[in-house]
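Morning run. Coffee first, then this:
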Amino acid sequence: MKPTKIRLMQLLNKQISAPISKDLRKKYSRRSVRIMIDDTVKVIRGEYKGITGKVSKISTENKSIAIEGNKKEKLKGDKVDVYIHTTNVIVTALNTDDKWRLKILEKKPKSKIKSMKEEVKKKEEVKKKEEVKKKEEVKKKEEVKKKEETKSENKKEIKNKNGDK
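And here it is:
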């Protein structure tokens, strides 16, 4: 496939996305997701507000979706699917049959990765500071021991000098 075609498909994927419900937002740490067939959506704006159902068709040209059971009757009596733009719906349940999609959803978003890296850096800095403090304490203890040893040696020398006289 040509790179330009791939970029176009990526762009279409982004345009056929919709915000997800608050409970899914907490679960997957994402605000929106690409709509797929068999996802459950709820219409939040427009003429069909309040309708909930599964996605039956997706139109990439119009960036819209058709919901099961949501049909419009024509003058001749035929029933036709009603397409609703993806910005007017909210995803309430995801189709989890696709393992690739689940793998993508489970990934941490970039913002969380950045915050996690910052936390790790802070922890490392704290550990370094603690190590430096421990080393300083050890040095102080060694210095105190040396001073005590020199004092005891000085006392011995003084006693020896006094004993010689």
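DSSP finds four helices and seven strands in the chain. Good start to the day.
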